[in-house]
From TrEMBL:
It is found in: Membrane. This is Membrane insertase YidC/Oxa/ALB C-terminal domain-containing protein. InterPro entries: YidC/Oxa/ALB_C (IPR028055). Belongs to the OXA1/ALB3/YidC family. It comes from Candidatus Uhrbacteria bacterium RIFCSPLOWO2_02_FULL_51_9.
Amino acid sequence: MPDILWNDYLYRPLLNILIWLYNNWAGQNLGWAVVILTVALRVILLPFSIINERNAVRYERLHERIEGLEKAFKNDPVQLKEEIRNVMHYYRVSPWAKTVVLGILGLVLVLLYQVFLGGMEPIKIARALYDWNDAPGTVNTIFFGFDIALRSLLWSGAAGVWIFLDLYWTQRKSAQSATKGEVMFIIFFPFFIFVLLWWLPMVKSIFILTSMAFSGTITVLRKLFVKTPKPKAAH
């Protein structure tokens, strides 16, 4: 029963959408089909991304407010603790929207792995296609000179470097110095992602890079058009 649910309601629909994009919008290039699929998925998840960006604004306001409280009550740790508790309750931020986005993206990543696991064999693909979808025959998996069905040191490295820079700049914007644990995370987490992506077909790197580019665009637009309000003075 779980296999039927997975194949009929998750794997086959994703494969059919991917092949339809390949045939109609991607110029019969599977790499571009994956890019279009990723962007379309992020557009569908845009309401959750907007909520996540709104939470990011709240985090910034919360951080500034706590810094002000630490200065105002530096000689009264008991009152400081109480004020911080009140402020955190006021700026309560739920991570559910980000969890939904990451969960769905993770699911699609696993499904893409299954698509490429047995190779892009025309006969295997044709058997899984719906009647309204045309079998493409030989599938073009070359993307900017790289075969997305194979491993790629360059593309996995690009994903790892992007993640490192994102974590690094996020930490630099923080008013507090990074702890030893945070420094270790900034260094080793991108390295772990790099190794993992290098071990997997290059299509995973394309998916992650496209998704990060979309997230980065949303963040830039938010910073350009949505100003973070000044936090209220501590009572």
